[in-house]
């Protein structure tokens, strides 16, 4: 259920003492809960986008732009010094998943990935509506790349190519670049038969087993880019047997999710899969999301990263840093969520992550003044 | 689409010359087409059962009994010397499957398994309505054993325990006994994770791969019963990953279809699966259909089998010979279909099988006179 937006006025002078940190944290958690209480599984972000749009419309300082269920809020009268970006959608919740707050964590679907990031964005926006910051909330990040709302949203508006913080879960690290991602269908053709006489057919699961065995023993490729190590991995995620309980499956499809490093060729990984799947398997490239460039040397971001002593690490996940850097926005990932919690059935976000990320973003805000 | 039943009167004196064989064949094919043109996937047999019931009701000689979508037709004024039995349902058709007649074959869903058998039954019934033969048409054979309509149909009527021919596909052989059948779910628990960082989870497909490899190399157990060799086999049929394209599957379920010989213990096969799946896998017995006794020495059937020189072989499939022999009906499989065609996407039945089976049944009819 959506709560009404809070009505408190923004603080005019932020302060980082511990009492104010407590009140900052409470407001951040309140905003995170506001997002979590509005389910927004991919393609079902409309209600959340509508409510968020109404909430943003209360601030005269912003021009609000919408495309499908994505929103951009930019200052009406100034150029943004930097942008913050986050996706509104989540993967589907698990059956027993509910929102709760316990032992310094907020539990719920999408807390780490990435409604905690959205909460930080909303808190900065509502607390500092006069700051030179632009906000990008977009839809359908967790689905197929062809439906991702970021690129069409940005192409439908004229936005300066300012440095951009993507608030995907990074556990408070600056995570640079991002691995590219693609999906392959590997199709094994056997011969269907009655399960009482399996020797009259050819079980496609048996044709698929050697590839599974190979992948189970495969170590990640470690690729170093600008001093950061990215890992290339091949993961079987969905296996489909297309058959009945009493028939030898005549066809098996394995969906592989493959990640590749910035600057590396995805084609070598496809060749590896083809080699290990064998000449009789069909390997189909279903989609491809590019890798993201490493932008930690951006002139706005680099001094802030150094002054705050932020840990810089490679982003071992696909994020829209890929699309942003391809479109000319120098972008890095920096968010409050815990990466290992993304897509977990009992996903949580650490409260301290919310506060840390928020306070560091305020430093960037100050550094530009 | 259902055709209207043919209106020709039954022949009073059958003759086995080649010209009459041609006309017998045409009538058999016509009846097979009548059945094939009325789709009857398991649980959807009602329309076919309704039309068949109307067709049988035209013959005064029979008492017609119905239970759900199963029908029994028994002579009103005489004890049956033998019974013929067949199931009305089929597995779901494949997408491109249509009925056609080509090169001595009739193609279509359920032709071999076992509408060709139903066609022989209907031809005997309509051609020899005064013969001492009873007919059992029943529903839901291809689904779970708990829904199988044969036992409740027979329990709802008082039928003498006459020898019974089950017209499952046997390619004109007498196939005795039948293997028992059961399904196991083998559940592997890993740990779900984001597919970009698979090392943070445990891929349940990798836990399942060794069992698939073992089964791919396993030879059937050969078990000899009354001189007939039955093969015990374990076949993985459905594998379910329960996950998204971008997540490491945290749980995998493999459905195993297992066949065991008459008189053999199914429990040893469960122990084998448990041993090979490993101690962390959960093995769940989902259903169990018993094996069928070997009845080729029945005093009515044995002389006929010998006189006609019929080939006797073990039935390497589950058929309702299991339930019939358990209920006290001495039963064997003898049908016109081709066993290897059962459940094939382009299933066919040989025309010569129809004629052979029909003519041999007429010999049994004569032998009892």
Descriptive terms for the model:
homodimer; 369 residues; Alpha-Beta Plaits; 2 domains; disordered N terminus; five-stranded antiparallel sheet; six-stranded mixed sheet; alpha+beta; Aminopeptidase; elongated
Shape of chain A: elongated
Quaternary assembly: homodimer
CATH fold descriptor of the largest domain in chain A: Aminopeptidase
Largest interface: A-B, 56 and 56 residues
- Lateral strand order in the biggest sheet of chain A: 1-2-6-3-7-17
* Helix share bin of chain A: 25-40%
Provide a descriptive summary of the structure in words.
The structure is a homodimer of 369-residue chains. The first copy, chain A, has 9 helices and 18 strands. Chain A is an alpha+beta fold and 369 residues long. Chain A has 2 domains: 237 residues, 3-Layer(aba) Sandwich (Aminopeptidase); 110 residues, Alpha-Beta Plaits (2-Layer Sandwich). In chain A, the strands form 5 sheets. A 6-stranded mixed sheet of chain A has the order 1-2-6-3-7-17. Chain A has a 5-stranded antiparallel sheet with strand order 11-12-14-9-15. In chain A, strand 1 and strand 2 form a beta hairpin. In chain A, helix 1 packs across helix 3, helix 1 crosses helix 9 and helix 3 crosses helix 9. The first copy, chain A, starts with 17 loop residues before the first helix and ends with a helix. The interface between A and B is large, with 56 and 56 residues.
